[in-house]
């Protein structure tokens, strides 16, 4: 595998970009963020059926294309550019890799074809209220009873796209340790509550489980390892998404600086504005390199992924927040209004900094691995 962008990846990225500009531009994100569920099922299905996005990374025997994470990362750069609402990150970045990591052929055959076809939305929940992102298995407890099978009870917090999901893969405690169970979100014993989030374009929910029927995924006690593998891929795709969003902020700022006039000239001609834009560009390109290397490593250097995935997310989070903040400053007063899109990027950037763990946590993890 090569780090170079292939012609096929460029073509797919261009096609996805055109599709999003037409079907899900920023204006559409604004519409959806005012609704209880930030999800457009028509766009979801079209991305799967017309562009084959959902099948990337899913084996051909389950209806996918078997394409690598590198290709999917290019798609996420485009979705970040328009702050695409909906469960793409949750389903393709968490649920699919978790199912693949389970080694459970039956579970994969049950869930992956529906995802690839755009017919099913699957999320993952593991966080207990007030717990750290790294705390696994404390949100719920699963028990197996004769004649009833497995049921799960507990309160799972901050479930991404929990209201849009058809299935939630819950990491619950069992006597053998944290394990993964598939729960039908419309089934008995399941109650979902919306959670007000800093980022209004990304849906969050709390899922309350009361003896909800569930089916085990993978081996009992293997939940921590399965979730770790899934989170690594989520870090990579989230990093790609944030790079795309950061680039959109820079493009927005440069475009405004070229047209806004002050003191008889475009503000982009002032050295202070030039410096801001140049520094943001350097930071974005560094983050892009990290994100693309991490995506490459997912298919070519698996032993590096636990380190480079988190670092890619950390670098992208810093670059995105810097780009969003400078975009707001360059726009001045108009950038602080509700009607302008700048604040949407800033909120997405700030929320992204802490999603799945903050920058400090990733760097401390690297320090532990290096023994420093």
Automatic annotation (TrEMBL):
Gene3D superfamilies per the UniProt record, alphabetical: Acyl-CoA dehydrogenase/oxidase, N-terminal domain, Butyryl-CoA Dehydrogenase, subunit A, domain 2, Butyryl-CoA Dehydrogenase, subunit A, domain 3
Pfam families in UniProt: Acyl-CoA_dh_1, Acyl-CoA_dh_N
Cofactor: FAD
InterPro entries in alphabetical order: Acyl-CoA_Oxase/DH_mid-dom_sf (IPR046373), AcylCo_DH-like_C (IPR036250), AcylCo_DH/oxidase_C (IPR009075), AcylCoA_DH/ox_N (IPR013786), AcylCoA_DH/ox_N_sf (IPR037069), AcylCoA_DH/oxidase_NM_dom_sf (IPR009100)
Domain Acyl-CoA dehydrogenase/oxidase N-terminal: 6-119
MF terms (GO), sorted A to Z: acyl-CoA dehydrogenase activity; flavin adenine dinucleotide binding
Domain Acyl-CoA dehydrogenase/oxidase C-terminal: 236-370
Keyword list, A-Z: FAD, Flavoprotein, Oxidoreductase
Family label: Belongs to the acyl-CoA dehydrogenase family.
Full protein name: Acyl-CoA dehydrogenase
Organism: Actinomadura meyerae
């Amino acid at each position: 595998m090569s780090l170079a962008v292939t012609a096929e990846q460029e073509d797919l990225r261009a096609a996805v970009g055109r599709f999003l500009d037409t079907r899900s531009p920023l204006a559409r994100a604004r519409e959806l963020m005012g609704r209880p569920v930030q999800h457009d099922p028509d766009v979801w299905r079209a991305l799967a059926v017309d562009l084959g996005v959902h099948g990337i990374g899913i084996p051909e025997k389950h209806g996918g294309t078997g394409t690598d994470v590198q290709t999917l990362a290019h798609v996420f750069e485009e979705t970040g550019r328009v702050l695409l609402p909906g469960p793409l990150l949750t389903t393709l970045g968490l649920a699919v890799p978790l199912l693949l990591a389970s080694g459970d052929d039956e579970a994969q055959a049950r869930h992956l074809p529906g995802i690839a076809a755009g017919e099913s939305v699957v999320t993952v929940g593991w966080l207990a209220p007030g717990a750290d992102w790294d705390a696994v298995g404390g949100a719920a407890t699963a028990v197996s009873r004769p004649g009833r099978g497995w049921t799960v009870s507990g309160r799972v917090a901050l479930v991404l796209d929990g209201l849009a999901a058809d299935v939630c893969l819950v990491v619950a405690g069992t006597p053998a340790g944290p394990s993964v169970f598939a729960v039908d979100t419309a089934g008995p014993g399941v109650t979902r509550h919306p959670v007000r989030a800093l980022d209004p374009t990304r849906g969050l929910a709390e899922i309350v489980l009361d003896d909800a029927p569930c089916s085990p995924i993978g081996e009992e006690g293997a939940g921590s390892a399965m979730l770790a593998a899934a989170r690594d891929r989520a870090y990579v795709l989230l990093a790609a998404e944030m790079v795309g969003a950061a680039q959109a902020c820079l493009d927005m700022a440069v475009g405004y600086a070229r047209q806004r006039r002050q003191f008889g000239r475009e503000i982009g001609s002032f050295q202070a504005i030039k410096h801001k834009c140049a520094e943001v560009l350097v930071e974005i390109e560094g983050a892009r390199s990290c994100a693309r290397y991490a995506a490459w490593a997912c298919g070519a250097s698996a032993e590096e992924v636990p380190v480079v995935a988190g670092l890619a997310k950390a670098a992208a989070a810093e670059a995105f927040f810097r780009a969003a903040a400078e975009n707001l400053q360059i726009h001045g007063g108009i950038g602080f209004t509700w009607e302008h899109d700048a604040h949407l990027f800033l909120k997405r950037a700030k929320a992204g900094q802490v999603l799945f763990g903050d920058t400090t946590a990733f760097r401390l993890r690297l320090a532990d691995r290096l023994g420093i």
